[in-house]
Amino acid sequence: MRWTVDLNSDLGESFGSYVIGQDEAVLERITSANIACGFHAGDHNVLRRTVKMAAEKGIGLGAHPGLPDRLGFGRRYIQVDPDDVYNMTVYQLGAVKTFAALEGKELQHVKPHGAMYNMAAKDAEMAQAIAEAVAAVDPSLILFGLAGGELVKAGEKAGLQTAHEVFADRTYQPDGSLTPRSQPNCLIDDPQMAVDRVVRMVTKGKVTAVDGTDVSIQADTVCVHGDSPQALAFVEALREGLTGKGIHIQRIGKR
Question: CA–CA separation, 6 vs 65, rounded Å?
Fold first, then answer.
C-alpha cells in the first residue's frame, strides 16, 4: 500500500522586531504553510514576506485565521458569536488571498489557529460559521480541521474539500481532542517519538491517548507548530522518518 500525507506548519507569526520561529528554514521542508493573518500574530510586512517566500518555494499557501488576541497568541478562549466568527474569518482570509494574488498565486487552504481551532473542533455552530465563511470567499479552498472534529464535518456539509489534520508535537485525549496546553503532558519534545506516532497515525489510523487507550484517527495532513524552538528539528525528523517508512510527502492541493 502507498501512503501519502501533507506536511504543514504555522508560519508568519513574527511581529515587527519580534521574531518567532524559523520560517525560511522550515519552508524548505514542508508542503503547506498556514500563514498568520494579523489577528493572533503577524503583521502586514511579515504576511507579505511569508507569502512571498512560500510562493517562491512552491509551497501550498494557507490562511491561518485566529481570534483577536495578540497578548495571548490566540490561545485564550474568548466568547464570540457566529457573526463575529464569520466576519473575522472572511476578513483574515481576504488579507492572505490578496497578498497571494500579488505573487500570482492562489490560496490553497484555510486552517484556524489556536483557540479558534480547538473551539471549532467541538462547537458545531462555530464550525459552521467558519466553514460558511470559507465557502463564501472561495469554495475551492481546502478546510483543515482536527481529525474527526466538528470543523471537518461542517466543511463537508458546506461543500468544501476538507483535510483531517493530526499533530506531531501534541498529545491526545481519549475523545480524540488535543491535550490542553494548560496540562503538563500536552507537548511531545522527542522528535523520534513524534515520528513513531505520526507513522502509526498515517499507516494504522491509530494514536495512543494520554491514558494509554488507542484512538482511531485519519491523517491527511500533519502539523508541526512553527513557534516551537524544535520546529525545524521536528520537520527534518518527520521527512526522514516518514519517507524511510515508504510514506510519500506531498502537497495536499494541486493549485
Answer: 20
Which of 231, 224, 229, 169 minimizes the C-alpha distance to 194?
A: 169
Q: Round to whole Å and give the CA distance between 221 and 202.
A: 9
Alpha-carbon gap, residue 255 to 251, rounded angstroms: 10
Contact present, 108 and 142 (Cβ < 8 Å): yes
pLDDT in tens, 147-180: 999 999 999 999 999 999 999 989 999 999 999 9
Q: Which residues, at least 6 apart from 222, have a Cβ–Cβ distance to it below 8 Å?
A: 5, 6, 7, 8, 165, 166, 167, 168, 198, 201, 202, 238
Q: Which of the 8 DSSP states describes residue 172?
A: B
Q: CA angle 113-64-5, nearest 5°?
A: 90
Burial group, residue 68, by CB count within 10 angstroms (0-12, 13-18, 19+): middle
β-strands 3-11, 221-224 pairing: parallel
- Over residues 23-34, the pLDDT tens digits come to 999 999 999 999
Q: Would you give the DSSP letter of residue 25?
A: H
Gap between the Cα atoms of 19 and 17, Å rounded: 6
- Mean of the per-residue pLDDT values for the chain? 94
H helices present in the chain, as ranges = 23-27, 44-56, 82-102, 114-122, 124-137, 150-157, 191-204, 231-244
Helix (H, G, I), strand (E, B) or coil at 91: helix
Q: What is the pTM of this model?
A: 0.95
CB distance 86 to 117 below 8 Å: no
